[in-house]
Amino acid sequence: KAGVTQTPRYLIKTRGQQVTLSCSPISGHRSVSWYQQTPGQGLQFLFEYFSETQRNKGNFPGRFSGRQFSNSRSEMNVSTLELGDSALYLCASSSGLAGGPDTQYFGPGTRLTVL
Amino acid sequence: AQTVTQSQPEMSVQEAETVTLSCTYDTSESNYYLFWYKQPPSRQMILVIRQEAYKQQNATENRFSVNFQKAAKSFSLKISDSQLGDTAMYFCAFMGNTGKLIFGQGTTLQVKP
């Protein structure tokens, strides 16, 4: 099976702009989670989508949003970019069917730089 | 709230030797999984090993094994016969019923030839 894919791999934006990141999960996986990785804060959970519904949400401002499509592909949007949004954004997929702990498999990440 | 702590920011080991990375966690949940992920310089997060809390037997995957001490809330990773390709940052992670991974701060492992 193909792994989790993320596009684009690199992005450079300026403050105030918005950005959309895309994630395609492993075939058959219905859950997609997003994480932000920064040197200062480490890895932090953004949100999880399952069957086109947001199932979990982390402690991020409303500028961070996401959605999931019927084919389980997910997009993450960040509006009004700030310098502090510069980070590696990781997407992870899992079956989502366990109803409890599950194993997440990660994509290669999107490196976002905000100037 | 659940927390994961990795107390060793950096470690090094000679090629072919054995190294152990430490991790402690805190939770009041009874149903959870613990993971070790590896992140090499490419930044791809790779699953190394998984331990289900309800299993008493320690998980093993080839050269990688864990020492899961549930009462002590300890979860260490042992890498045997270290290889240059094992050089990476290693993250210990917890997942309970919320479905989100909680990561430790990471341990940078350098394997020296």
Compact overview of the structure:
Chain A has 115 residues and is mainly β. Helix content of chain A is 0%, strand content 52%.
Strand share of the residues of chain B? over 45%
Identify low-pLDDT runs of chain A.
none
Biggest chain-to-chain interface with counts:
A-B, 25 and 25 residues
The poorly predicted ranges of chain B are none
Overall radius of gyration of chain B: 13 Å
β-sheet strand percentage of chain A = over 45%
Gyration radius from CA atoms of chain A, angstroms: 13 Å
Give the CA-based shape of chain A.
globular
- Euclidean distance between termini CA atoms of chain A: 37 Å
How many strands, which pairing sense, and closed or not: the largest β-sheet of chain B?
6 strands, mixed
Number of alpha- plus pi-helical segments of chain B: 0
Distance between the termini of chain B: 41 Å
Structural class of chain A: mainly beta
- Classify the oligomer: heterodimer
Overall helicity of chain A: under 10%
* Number of E strands of chain A: 11
Question: Structural class, from secondary structure content of chain B?
Answer: mainly beta
Please provide the ordered H/E string of secondary-structure elements of chain A: EEEEEEEEEEE
